[in-house]
Amino acid sequence: MIEIVIGAVIGTIVSLLIAEVYHRRSSRDMNELIAKLEKKNQKLGKMLTNLDEWQEQHFDDLQMIRKHSVAGTTDDPDYPYK
User: Cα dihedral sign for 8, 11, 12, 13?
Assistant: First the structure.
């Protein structure tokens, strides 16, 4: 009877040790994955910021082109004969 109890205790301790090792390994892997995702998130944020700046500049350039392309024509909002 004592052998069964001792075997159960030893089995429980070994199982807990194995579970702890796998838990630490998976936690380390998860932390590495989170760190990689955070770096990619920062890069994506920078890309979006640059894209917003480019879009604003591009929009301003298109407005200037549109304004100058219709100057002196009947599409010009400041055309004197409208």
Answer: positive
Cα separation, 59 vs 70, in Å, equals 17
d(CA 16, CA 24): 12
How many Å apart are CA 50 and CA 6, to the nearest integer? 66
pLDDT in tens, 35-54: 999 999 999 999 999 999 99
Q: List pLDDT tens digits, range 5-26.
A: 999 999 999 999 999 999 999 9
Q: DSSP states of 24-64 as a string? A: HHHHHHHHHHHHHHHHHHHHHHHHHHHHHHHHHHHHHHHHH
Q: What's the pTM value of the predicted model, to 2 decimals?
A: 0.52
Residues 6+ apart with CB under 8 A from 60: none
